[in-house]
């Protein structure tokens, strides 16, 4: 049904749901508990919320005491989310239809309401948003700074962090890799590293999103890190942990357990995981890109600039000639 709505609207289904195996990975990392509150500020059809409850169901734990909250800007999609939760037996839920950045729906007096778990797959790098209003946000969500107009990713990021409970709050966010290294967001990223809430960065494989070949990452944050995690971030390169069948990519249980094991052990694994000190990250231009810390296989070759640059220029020139030839052939036809 959700896929049908996506096709009729001419959209990719990412607007409506996130790959279920990726959400399973997120749920197993966040480990929701009975009586906790779960919030998705860009909830789509509510699939991420349902999957968190499934985590408890599959463990035989009491799940009906969990409070579920979601916000979605699309009216049709928010209606689907309500239906989805209702059909999955969820009774204590609230789904609001409004723009999360413009009008956050869940408040506690003059502050944002706080939740034990926040998880989200926000719209990537949107350009149409009210940056000026966010610059003077009355809810205090610009504590890292104001993101550039062309990319609202860190606006959603700050909203999510601001919505985490001070003691139990933890989050998992699906983002494009650009948030980990883009120069225009350097100052925001630097402050993010310094406040020491980023716990883990996981790089996912390609084609895990409907009609999109892009690779995404999961950023895990905690307000109260374990003592052994304080002042550190673990980077996990899981882009090879993916299977494909019938034109659909997914994480197998072995992939999920390998990632979970690396996260829980919080130790270096050659070519897969690296624990980095936040001081080293800060000295490395506050880069959070996984390849900056996890050594890649087959990357031991050293390139000399004076020798490599002319080769690159020649390859680039040849590529432009070939593209021009192709375009002229297409026009001719």
CATH topology category name of the largest domain? Rossmann fold
Percent of sequence in beta strands? 15-25%
The CATH architecture of the largest domain comes to 3-Layer(aba) Sandwich
How would you classify the quaternary structure? single chain
What strand line-up does the widest sheet have? 3-2-1-6-7-9-8-10-13
Radius of gyration: 21 Å
- The global form is globular
- The SS-based structural class is alpha/beta
| Count of runs of 4 or more consecutive helical residues | 10
What is the CATH level 1 assignment of the largest domain?
Alpha Beta
Could you spell the SSE succession in H and E letters? HHEHEHEEEEHHEHEEEEEHEHH
How many domain regions?
2
User: What composes the largest sheet?
Assistant: 9 strands, mixed
List the uncertain runs.
none
Structure in words:
This protein has 333 residues and is of the alpha/beta class. It has two domains: 2-292, 3-Layer(aba) Sandwich (Rossmann fold), CATH 3.40.50; 306-333. The chain contains ten helices and 13 strands. The chain has helices spanning 2-9, 20-30, 47-58, 75-87, 131-135, 153-162, 186-194, 253-265, 278-283, 305-332, and strands spanning 37-40, 67-72, 93-97, 107-108, 111-112, 117-120, 170-176, 198-203, 216-222, 232-237, 243-245, 248-250, 273-277. The chain has a nine-stranded mixed sheet with strand order 3-2-1-6-7-9-8-10-13, sandwiched between helices. It has a two-stranded antiparallel ribbon with strand order 4-5. Helix 3 (47-58) links the parallel strand 1 and strand 2 (67-72). The two termini are 41 Å apart. The model has no long low-confidence stretch (mean pLDDT 90).
């Amino acid at each position: 049904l959700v896929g049908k709505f996506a096709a009729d609207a001419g959209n990719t289904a990412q607007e409506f749901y996130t790959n279920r195996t990726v959400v399973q990975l997120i749920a197993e990392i966040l480990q929701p508990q009975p009586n906790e509150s779960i919030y998705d500020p860009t909830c789509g059809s509510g699939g991420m919320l349902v999957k968190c409850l499934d985590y408890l169901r599959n463990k035989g734990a009491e799940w009906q005491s969990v409070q579920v909250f979601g916000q979605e800007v699309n009216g049709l999609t928010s209606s689907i989310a309500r239906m989805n939760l209702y059909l999955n037996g969820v009774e204590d839920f609230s789904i609001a239809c409004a723009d999360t950045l413009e009008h956050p729906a869940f408040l506690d007096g003059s502050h944002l309401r706080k939740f034990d778990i926040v998880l989200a797959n926000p719209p990537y790098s949107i350009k149409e948003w009210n940056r000026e209003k966010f610059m003077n946000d009355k809810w205090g969500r610009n504590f890292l700074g104001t993101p550039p107009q062309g990319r609202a990713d860190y606006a959603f990021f700050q909203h999510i962090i601001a919505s985490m409970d001070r003691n139990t709050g933890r989050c998992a966010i699906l983002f494009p890799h650009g948030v980990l290294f883009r120069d225009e967001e350097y100052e925001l990223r630097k402050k993010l590293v310094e406040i020491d809430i980023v716990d883990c960065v996981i790089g996912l494989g390609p084609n895990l999103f409907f009609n999109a070949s892009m690779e995404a990452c999961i950023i895990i944050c905690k307000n109260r890190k374990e003592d052994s995690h304080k002042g550190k971030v673990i980077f996990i390169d899981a882009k090879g942990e993916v299977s494909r069948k019938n034109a659909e990519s997914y994480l197998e249980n072995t992939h999920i357990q390998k990632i979970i094991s690396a996260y829980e052990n919080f130790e270096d694994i050659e070519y897969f995981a690296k624990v980095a000190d936040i001081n080293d990250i800060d000295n490395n231009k506050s880069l959070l890109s996984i390849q900056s810390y996890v050594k890649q296989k087959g990357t031991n070759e050293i390139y000399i600039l004076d020798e490599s640059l002319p080769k690159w220029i020649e390859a680039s020139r040849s590529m432009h000639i070939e593209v021009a030839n192709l375009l002229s052939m297409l026009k001719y036809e």
